[in-house]
C-alpha cells in the first residue's frame, strides 16, 4: 500500500472545505494534532515502562541465580543441595522464558539447557517436560525446525508418560505453528485440534481460547472468514470470562479483520476500534499496529474518509516505530547479556575449582574406606551364606525324609483300607462258593469276586501310577485319565472318547495335585456309569492359562440344585472340595438331553 495516499487524501479534503469554516477546521486540526501527539507520547511512555519492568525482572532473576550458584558451591547436606538445584532449575527456566518473550532467543537457549540439566539431576519430570517444550519453542523461533521437532517430541512423550496434560496441550499448539511455517497446513490444523481436545479435557479455558483463535486464523488465512468467525467469537467470550486482556484485544482485532473481508464495514469498524482502544490503553503494540493498519485501509479504500484514515495511519506508524525501537534495544541487550553470562560463568567456575579439588580428595578417602568396609562385609557375607546354604540343605533333606515317611504311611493305609478289604471280600466269597450248592448264589458270588478283583486291580494300578516319579507331569496325568476312562466303560454299552491336545506344555504336578484331579475325574466317570443311563460319553481337554477338562454325556440328566442340597450322597461335594484345594472350580450343566461337567484348575 502506498503510504503517501493518506496524506494526499487529507490535503485534498482540506482544500475542498468551505472558506467560512476554515478557522473552525484549523482549530479542530490543532486539537486533533495535540490529541494525536499526546496519544503517541503515552504509547512511547508505556513502551519504556514495559521495557524497564522486563529488564528489572531479568536482573532480579539473575541475582537470584548468582546467589543460588554460590550457595551450591558450599558443602550443604544432600537435601539442601537438592533444594538449591531445584531453585537453580526454576530460575534458569524463568530467565530463558523471559528472553523468549523479549525475542532474545539466542540468549534464552543456554539458560534453558542449564534448567534442563538441573531438572534431570533432581528428577523433576514435570520441569523436564516443560523445558523440552520451551527449548522446542526457542529453536522454532530460530527457524531450526529439525531441532524444534526433536524437543517437542521428547516433551510429548514425557507429558503423556507422567500425565501432565497442560504442557502437552501447549506442545501440540506450538508444534502446529512449526508445521504451519513449513507449509504443512493440514498437519498443523490436526495438531491444533489435538491441543484443543487436551485443553477441554482439563478445562483449561485459556488454552481452549488460544486454540479456537489459532483455528480461526488458519481459516482466515485460507480465505474463509465465514468459517473463522464462530471460532473467533467463542474465543472472545472465553477470554472475557477469564479476563485475558491481551487475548481479548487480539480476538477483537481478528473479528474486525474478518468482518472487513466479509464486507460488513460497520461491524468491522466496531470491533477494530474497540481492539485499537484496548491496545492503546494496555500497550499491546502488535495489536495496535495491526488494527490501525486495517482501520487506515477501511477509511481510505472503503469509506474514502481521509481524516480518519490519516489518524489511523499515524497510530500505525507510532506502533510500528515502537516495535522497531524495541527490537533495536533487544539487539543491544543480547550482546550485553551474552557477555555478562560468559563472564559470570567463568567467575563461578574459577571460584569452585578449589572446592572441587578438596571435595575430590574427601571423596577419594571416603570411597577407599567404603571399599575396605565392603570387602569385609562381602567376606563375612560369603561365609554366612555358605553356612546358611548348608543348613538349608540339611533342612531340605530332613523335610524330604519326613514327606517320604508321611507318603509311605498314607500309601500303607490306602493299601490296608482298600486292597485289604477287597482281598478279604474275595477270600470270603471264595470260601462261601465252596460251601454252596445253589448255582444262582454261586454265580452271584462269582460276579462279586470279579467286581472286587477289578476294584483291587484298579487300586493297584492307581497306587503304582502314583508312586512312579515319571508320571509327575500333565501329559502323563491326562493319558492315565484317558486310559482309566476307557477301562471304566470298556465292558458297558457306553461309547467313550477323550480328546487330548497333541502338544502339551511340560508342566510339573505334585503327587497330591495329580491324585486330587484324577479322583475328581474318576468320580465323574463313575457317576455317569451309575446314574446317567447314557450311551455316549466324551471328554475334551483345553490348556489356556488353566487346565480345563470337559466331560459330557447324553444321559437323562438331573436337577443340579437338588443334588447339591441333598444331605445324602457326597460325590459332588467331594469333587468340589478336592478342586477347592487346588484353587479350581466345578461347573455343572444338566438337562433332559444330558450333562456337561467342566473341571478347571489354574496352571501350576
List the helices and strands and how they pair.
Elements: H1 5-15, H2 22-72, H3 78-101, H4 105-121, H5 125-141, H6 145-162, H7 165-181, H8 185-202, H9 205-221, H10 225-241, H11 245-261, H12 265-282, H13 285-302, H14 306-435, H15 439-467, H16 474-488, E1 495-499, H17 511-532, E2 536-543, E3 546-553, H18 560-565, H19 571-581, E4 585-591, E5 594-602
Parallel strand pairs: 1-2
Antiparallel strand pairs: 2-3, 3-5, 4-5
Written description of the protein model:
With 604 residues, the chain is an alpha+beta fold. It has a domain at 472-602: Histidine kinase-like ATPase, C-terminal domain (Heat Shock Protein 90). 78% of the residues lie in helices and 6% in strands. The chain is built from 19 helices and five strands. It has helices at 5-15, 22-72, 78-101, 105-121, 125-141, 145-162, 165-181, 185-202, 205-221, 225-241, 245-261, 265-282, 285-302, 306-435, 439-467, 474-488, 511-532, 560-565, 571-581, and strands at residues 495-499, 536-543, 546-553, 585-591, 594-602. Strands 1-2-3-5-4 form a five-stranded mixed β-sheet, with helices on one face. A hairpin with a 2-residue loop joins strand 2 and strand 3. The two termini are 84 Å apart. The model is unreliable at 1-52 (pLDDT under 50).
Amino acid at each position: 500500500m502506498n503510504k503517501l495516499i493518506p496524506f494526499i487524501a487529507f490535503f485534498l479534503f482540506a482544500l475542498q472545505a468551505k472558506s467560512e469554516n476554515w478557522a473552525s477546521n484549523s482549530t479542530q486540526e490543532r486539537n486533533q494534532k495535540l490529541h494525536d501527539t499526546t496519544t503517541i507520547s503515552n504509547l512511547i511512555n508505556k513502551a519504556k515502562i514495559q521495557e524497564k519492568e522486563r529488564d528489572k525482572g531479568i536482573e532480579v532473576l539473575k541475582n537470584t541465580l548468582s546467589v543460588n550458584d554460590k550457595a551450591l558451591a558450599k558443602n550443604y547436606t544432600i537435601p539442601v543441595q537438592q533444594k538449591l538445584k531445584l531453585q537453580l532449575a526454576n530460575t534458569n527456566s524463568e530467565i530463558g522464558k523471559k528472553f523468549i518473550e523479549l525475542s532474545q532467543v539466542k540468549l534464552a537457549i543456554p539458560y534453558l539447557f542449564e534448567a534442563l540439566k538441573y531438572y534431570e539431576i533432581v528428577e523433576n519430570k514435570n520441569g523436564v517436560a516443560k523445558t523440552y517444550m520451551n527449548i522446542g519453542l526457542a529453536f522454532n523461533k530460530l527457524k531450526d525446525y529439525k531441532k524444534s521437532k526433536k524437543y517437542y517430541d521428547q516433551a510429548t512423550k514425557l507429558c503423556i508418560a507422567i500425565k501432565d496434560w497442560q504442557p502437552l496441550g501447549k506442545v501440540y499448539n506450538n508444534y502446529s505453528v512449526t508445521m504451519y511455517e513449513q507449509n504443512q497446513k493440514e498437519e498443523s490444523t490436526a495438531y491444533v485440534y489435538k491441543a484443543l481436545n487436551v485443553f477441554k479435557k482439563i478445562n483449561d479455558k485459556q488454552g481452549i481460547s488460544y486454540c479456537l483463535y489459532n483455528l480461526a486464523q488458519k481459516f482466515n488465512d485460507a480465505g474463509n472468514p465465514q468459517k473463522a468467525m464462530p471460532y473467533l467469537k467463542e474465543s472472545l467470550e472465553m477470554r472475557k470470562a477469564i479476563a485475558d486482556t491481551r487475548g481479548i484485544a487480539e480476538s477483537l482485532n481478528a473479528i474486525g479483520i474478518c468482518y472487513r473481508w466479509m464486507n460488513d464495514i460497520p461491524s468491522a469498524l466496531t470491533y477494530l476500534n474497540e481492539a485499537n482502544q484496548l491496545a492503546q490503553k494496555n500497550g499491546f503494540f502488535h495489536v495496535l499496529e495491526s488494527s490501525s493498519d486495517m482501520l487506515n485501509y477501511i477509511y481510505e479504500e472503503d469509506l474514502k474518509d481521509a481524516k480518519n484514515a490519516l489518524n489511523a495511519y499515524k497510530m500505525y506508524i507510532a506502533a510500528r516505530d515502537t516495535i522497531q525501537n524495541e527490537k533495536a534495544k533487544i539487539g543491544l541487550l543480547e550482546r550485553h547479556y551474552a557477555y555478562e553470562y560468559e563472564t559470570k560463568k567463568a567467575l563461578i567456575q574459577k571460584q569452585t575449582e578449589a572446592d572441587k579439588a578438596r571435595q575430590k580428595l574427601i571423596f577419594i578417602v571416603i570411597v577407599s574406606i567404603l571399599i575396605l568396609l565392603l570387602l569385609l562385609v562381602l567376606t563375612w557375607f560369603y561365609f554366612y551364606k555358605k553356612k546358611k546354604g548348608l543348613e538349608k540343605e540339611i533342612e531340605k533333606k530332613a523335610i524330604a525324609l519326613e514327606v517320604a515317611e508321611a507318603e509311605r504311611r498314607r500309601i500303607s493305609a490306602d493299601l490296608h483300607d482298600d486292597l485289604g478289604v477287597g482281598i478279604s471280600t474275595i477270600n470270603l466269597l471264595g470260601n462261601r462258593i465252596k460251601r454252596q450248592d445253589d448255582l444262582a448264589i454261586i454265580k452271584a458270588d462269582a460276579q462279586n469276586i470279579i467286581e472286587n478283583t477289578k476294584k483291587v486291580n484298579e487300586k493297584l494300578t492307581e497306587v503304582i501310577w502314583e508312586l512312579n516319579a515319571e508320571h509327575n507331569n500333565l501329559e502323563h496325568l491326562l493319558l492315565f485319565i484317558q486310559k482309566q476312562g476307557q477301562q471304566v466303560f470298556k465292558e458297558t454299552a457306553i461309547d467313550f472318547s477323550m480328546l487330548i491336545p497333541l502338544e502339551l506344555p511340560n508342566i510339573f504336578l505334585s503327587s497330591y495335585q495329580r491324585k486330587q484331579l484324577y479322583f475328581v475325574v474318576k468320580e465323574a466317570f463313575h457317576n455317569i456309569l451309575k446314574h446317567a443311563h447314557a450311551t455316549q460319553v466324551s471328554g475334551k481337554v483345553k490348556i489356556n492359562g488353566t487346565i480345563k477338562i470337559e466331560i459330557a454325556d447324553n444321559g437323562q440328566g438331573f436337577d443340579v440344585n437338588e443334588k447339591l442340597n441333598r444331605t445324602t450322597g457326597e460325590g459332588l461335594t467331594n469333587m468340589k472340595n478336592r478342586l477347592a484345594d487346588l484353587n479350581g472350580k466345578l461347573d455343572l450343566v444338566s438337562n433332559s438331553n444330558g450333562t456337561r461337567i467342566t473341571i478347571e484348575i489354574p496352571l501350576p
